[in-house]
């Protein structure tokens, strides 16, 4: 109940902030799935999280959990902390459990926001989670959030699922996903 209320309020704020266009929601399959996306602005997880067919679970930097009200709110929305300064085994195990339990797990393939607006190199940890989970990956492109003016066009494009089978080269997996997101970007522009 709390989740649905918060999602409604956040979704309303997103729609007031942006002229939003969402495409490809039908590409998100039932069961455990990974939504892998680019990251340019603090609004990005809100755009995606309020426009998925089921609750989205996402890693968020540990510092966001210092404020108790913010921590409670983002935890209700599906966020959980990750320590970006070291290999955070607890967060990785939590990610794999979320996927195994048939939920939507989401991550930013660059690890943090791109200051230039261009995609940074993807983190190999993305490949690790994909390989260990065996889940399909939905490449997702977020656009328009870097413009600080209100009522600007912004959107989310959910691409078609990518299946990696027995692939274990984490860097190759991460680069394949990054290229798929770049392809979505080229279709939008």
UniProtKB/TrEMBL annotation:
Pfam families the UniProt entry points to: Acyltransferase
Keywords from the UniProt entry: Acyltransferase, Transferase
Classification via InterPro entries: Plipid/glycerol_acylTrfase
GO term, biological process aspect, one: phosphatidic acid biosynthetic process
Protein's UniProt name: 1-acyl-sn-glycerol-3-phosphate acyltransferase
Residue ranges of every copy of the Phospholipid/glycerol acyltransferase domain listed in the record: 33-145
Top-level lineage group: Bacteria
MF term (GO), any: 1-acylglycerol-3-phosphate O-acyltransferase activity
